[in-house]
Amino acid sequence: MRPPQKSKLLKVVILGDGGVGKSALLTRFVSNRYEENNFHTIGVEFMNKDIAVDGEKYTLQIWDTAGQERFRALRTPFYRGSDMCLLCYALDDRDSLRGLRLWHNEFINYADVQPDRFPFIVVGNKNDIRAERRQVSYEDVQQWCTEHGISAHIETSSKTATNVTDAFVLALRQWKAMERVAEAEQRQHGDTIDLTQPIRLMQRRQCCTGGGAGKAADVVDADDDDGRNTDAAMRSPSSMSRHLFGQSRSSPKAPKTNYQL
Ligand SMILES: Nc1nc2c(ncn2[C@@H]2O[C@H](COP(=O)(O)OP(=O)(O)OP(=O)(O)O)[C@@H](O)[C@H]2O)c(=O)[nH]1
């Protein structure tokens, strides 16, 4: 009998200007709640959420970051080891779409990823607003995405719970698609012997030391989530403890907790 399937742990980072609704998105996704009066996030916080997509189980470890510039030094150390990134803007704030260029660049620099091989998705939040308050058209975003080589874009509302789960599923599917491409490349690379390159020694060394050829080339083992090539130090050792980094936002309601569903 096969042992029960363990879920894969994937680290997700949510970025975007202050006030676009990153925390609201996370709270809606994880605990299906919405708070109208949120205070700015200070530093970073994360929550876990289990999700099944296409018959496979995942635990998304979702990092909510402070959008205000003054918290840059508190948030950037947590980008490393990410598996996917949600770039958020608000549909009633044209500047927040323009701001995505900086967020995209900041993430690429600090997470040290190749932009064309990393699953970014663009999320336009607050799509419940009245038409006259809308400052960003669908075409504006499509153009931005094309210019930055991002193919996935979705509009959400944390307030009305529209497309919130779909946004995370979209990111996960992007991640899966990139993993498949990377695995195919790895197989192709493995089948080709380039006599001009001194690769034999290198391959042996990787084999003997247990090293991998790179994150994207991993065959993900459900029993070995923490041993993947992503930076384990940037992941939570335990999902039960409180996960606040920097300083927590102060909230008029109960403080945020983490949920292991
Ligand atoms: N109409 C509408 N308002 C929203 C929505 N999501 C968030 N808001 C509002 O936007 C405010 C800011 O939301 P937050 O989630 O705190 O924004 P943030 O991006 O986390 O902000 P920082 O913590 O400063 O980075 C909230 O207090 C809500 O009033 C939404 O889907 N629709």
What is this structure's SSE topology?
Layout: E1 8-16, H1 22-31, E2 44-53, E3 56-65, H2 72-75, E4 84-90, H3 94-98, H4 100-111, E5 120-125, H5 138-147, E6 153-155, H6 164-191, H7 199-209, E7 244-245
Parallel strand pairs: 1-3, 1-4, 4-5, 5-6
Antiparallel strand pairs: 2-3, 2-7
This protein binds guanosine-5'-triphosphate.
Work out the strand percent.
15-25%
Radius of gyration: 19 Å
Shape: globular
Q: Major β-sheet, in short?
A: 7 strands, mixed
In this entry the ligands are: guanosine-5'-triphosphate
Euclidean distance between termini CA atoms: 26 Å
Poorly predicted runs of 5 or more residues: 199-242, 246-261
Number of helices: 7
Annotation keywords:
261 residues; alpha/beta; Rossmann fold; seven-stranded mixed beta sheet; 7 strands; globular; disordered C terminus; binds guanosine-5'-triphosphate; P-loop_NTPase; hydrolase
What does this structure look like?
This protein is of the alpha/beta class and 261 residues long. It has a domain at 8-188: P-loop containing nucleotide triphosphate hydrolases (Rossmann fold, 3-Layer(aba) Sandwich), CATH 3.40.50.300. The protein is built from 7 helices and 7 strands. The chain has helices at residues 22-31, 72-75, 94-98, 100-111, 138-147, 164-191, 199-209; strands at 8-16, 44-53, 56-65, 84-90, 120-125, 153-155, 244-245. It has a 7-stranded mixed beta sheet, with helices on both faces. A hairpin with a 2-residue loop joins strand 2 (44-53) and strand 3. The longest helix is centred in the last third of the chain and has 28 residues, at 164-191. It starts with 7 loop residues before the first strand and ends in a 16-residue tail after the last strand. 31% of the residues are buried. Bound molecules: guanosine-5'-triphosphate. Guanosine-5'-triphosphate binds next to helix 1.
